[in-house]
Amino acid sequence: MLKRFTVSIEQKLLNDFDTFMEQHHYKNRSEAIRDLIRSRFVENEWAADKDVMGVISLVYDHHQPQLQEKITELQHDSHHQIVSTTHVHMDHDNCLEVIIIRGKAAKVQELADNLIALRGVRYGKLAMNSTGEHLH
Ligand code: NI
């Protein structure tokens, strides 16, 4: 059920918010505000070490000795948490691996850090997502 409420906000902040809305293609303020609130709640889930979903993406050169094995080994160590892994051979040298993982936020962060820190990983990123359980 949707509830309406009134918000008091400084003109400059509202202007910035409207600019944000346009840049991100929101059709109305309500949906933009809902998403900003949810975004902050997801940050809280991570800060409070709740059960979360994460997407780890890695770009690496598969010619780097032992690297492929280490990446696979780290994932097997967390096999109960790994939901899915997709590997893309992007060109002659570069691979992209995308790992979807579920678990306590600190554990997900730790696995991401360990993968990204491996020698030969050229770029790595953890996208912090939510199980959705606490999002409405
Ligand atoms: Ni590859």
Overall description:
The protein has two domains: 11-47; 51-130, ACT-like. Chain A, domain 2 (Alpha-Beta Plaits, 2-Layer Sandwich). The chain has four helices and four strands. It has helices spanning 11-23, 29-47, 67-77, 105-116, and strands at residues 51-61, 82-89, 94-104, 121-130. Strands 2-3-1-4 form a four-stranded antiparallel beta sheet. Strand 2 and strand 3 form a beta hairpin. The longest helix has 19 residues, at 29-47. The protein is elongated. It starts with 10 loop residues before the first helix and ends in a 6-residue tail after the last strand. The structure holds nickel (II) ion. Nickel (II) ion binds at residues 62, 87, 89, 95.
Write out key terms for the chains shown.
elongated, Alpha-Beta Plaits, 29% strand, 4 helices, binds nickel (II) ion, alpha+beta, 2 domains, 136 residues, four-stranded antiparallel sheet
Under CATH, the topology of the largest domain can be stated as: Alpha-Beta Plaits
What is the succession of H and E elements? HHEHEEHE
Taking Cα atoms only, what radius of gyration do you get, to the nearest Å?
A: 19 Å
Bound molecules: nickel (II) ion
Terminal-residue CA separation: 11 Å
CATH class of the largest domain: Alpha Beta
Counted up, domains total 2
Alpha plus pi helix count:
4
Instruction: Give the % helix.
Output: 40-55%
CATH architecture of the largest domain: 2-Layer Sandwich
Instruction: Give average pLDDT, whole number.
Output: 97
Number of strands: 4
Poorly predicted residue ranges: none
Which percent band covers the strand fraction?
A: 25-35%
Give me the side-by-side strand order of the main sheet.
2-3-1-4
Q: CATH H level of the largest domain: which superfamily?
A: ACT-like. Chain A, domain 2
Structural class category: alpha+beta
Shape: elongated
